[in-house]
Amino acid sequence: MTTARTVLITGGNRGIGYSLAEEFITQGHRVAVTARSGEGPEGSLTVIADVTDSASIDRAFTEVEAALGPIEVLVANAGVTKDTLLLRMTEDDFTSVIDTNLSGSFRVIKRASKGMLKARFGRIILISSVVGLYGSPGQVNYAASKAGLVGIARSITRELGSRGITANVVAPGFIETDMTAALPEATQAEYLKSIPAGRFATPTEVARVVAWLASDDAGYISGAVIPVDGGLGMGH
């Protein structure tokens, strides 16, 4: 039986984040999600926050701490894409994706780590992507932001590992969400051909791996990159 924890998931109002929140609730945890709009699943506390704004993150954390207690598990999931080929990619296309996906993760981790250090316990889980290490045409910005999460997790492991805090990366492959459903069918078929499992994952399959990493059973795993991609990125 896993100890019930206070869990905060960024970007928990849709897609993988929503499924993450559902899974943690099912397992009996106290769950809060950040969202810029919309709400997390029933049973979660939704706080409005923008991960590009430190002040809004601080307010959201303070609200969650008052309602549910210190945050013990942080899942940095909020992410955006602005896909386009390198020569068409503007500087803003690049920096805005980095600011949300990479710097946004830094901001929430920094805020969460204060309470974790005090408690001498913490689980930090960063939602990356197979693209972070595998690469993808048209996604220079997104791949850079997702690869950067690996460096964050491994540095935090070395810095805070002796304080009972773990930091791991989960790298989903092709998942059935609104974001992927928007891709052209030809692109989806192309991806399917390169996935040894021969299918896309459900968001729940990602959520269960994340919940396990947050559990007592995974206390000695840190700095790892765990793929949930049906074999798409093997060795990357």
Uncertain stretches: none
CATH superfamily: NAD(P)-binding Rossmann-like Domain
Structural class: alpha/beta
> Can you give the mean pLDDT?
95
The number of helical segments is 8
| SSE sequence, one letter per element | EHEEHEHEHHEHHHE
Query: What is the CATH T-level topology?
Result: Rossmann fold
**What's the number of structural domains?**
1
CATH architecture: 3-Layer(aba) Sandwich
Under CATH at level 1, the class stands as Alpha Beta
Distance between the termini: 33 Å
Helicity level: 40-55%
Domain Ketoreductase: 5-178
Keywords: Oxidoreductase
Organism: Agreia pratensis
GO molecular function, one term: oxidoreductase activity
How would you describe the overall organization of this protein?
There is one protein chain. This protein has helices at residues 15-26, 54-68, 91-119, 130-134, 140-160, 178-181, 185-194, 203-213; strands spanning 6-10, 30-35, 45-48, 73-76, 122-127, 165-172, 225-228. It has a single domain, classed as 3-Layer(aba) Sandwich (Rossmann fold). Strands 3-2-1-4-5-6-7 form a 7-stranded parallel sheet, with helices on both faces. The longest helix has 29 residues, at 91-119. It has 236 residues and is α/β, with parallel strands linked by helices. β4, α3 and β5 (122-127) form a beta-alpha-beta unit. It is globular, with a radius of gyration of 17 Å.
Sum this structure up briefly.
The chain has helices at residues 15-26, 54-68, 91-119, 130-134, 140-160, 178-181, 185-194, 203-213; strands spanning 6-10, 30-35, 45-48, 73-76, 122-127, 165-172, 225-228.
